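Risk register update: the risk that structure generation would not scale has been downgraded. Supporting records follow, first protein first.
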Amino acid sequence: MAKKRGKTASSKSSKKRLQSVEVIIRKKILGEAPEEHHFVVADGKKIKNIIELADALETMSEEIFRHHANEFKNDFSAWVKDVFYDHSLAEDISRAKNRLETQIAILRRLVKELM
């Protein structure tokens, strides 16, 4: 009888851990980066999370965008990967050819997350 209880407790514990992991991941992608990891745009604006990045891309000048994303680097992709650990979104951002495609990649990911 004791063994049976052990298995049940273990099963419950395992389910609890899975739920915790899902909540942590969701918080990470939708949450705010710690202050020391906010993205500082070349024009001085600070971006705290991925939603703010999508908003900033809406009005960002092409010059500022190209400063951060060009043939040599993609600071947006690196930030998403290094701070939010979303390698899939980081890859989509790095493949984007311009500001609009970058914004669309981010918005698609956010919509998926909210579903």
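Supporting record for the second protein:
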Amino acid sequence: MDTNNNEREFYTLTDEEGNEIEFELIGAAEIKGVTYYAMIPADAADKAQEEENGFCEYVILRAEKDEDGADSLVTIDDDEEFDDVADYFDDLFSEEIDYDATEN
């Protein structure tokens, strides 16, 4: 995913009960031909910046087509699939940025 670090992407999602919740996209990956998105509730992103550790939990959603052919994001019901994707995102997010590295 190529995004400018200064640009934040927000999505309003509707849950199964019809409630709308705004999420911020924090990562995306294509694994075995399926696209997955890691998101945090938008208000959680602001709260995490205020906390010392800057960490908040994220949700992982899978992109798929609904019965009308429209794009939708769904939760992952398969435990093995979820674990594989969660491991990928955990590794991605745990990589430390080396601020002492010099730029060329």
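The beta strands are 9-14, 20-31, 34-41, 59-65, 71-75. On this basis the risk owner (M.S.) recommends closing the item.
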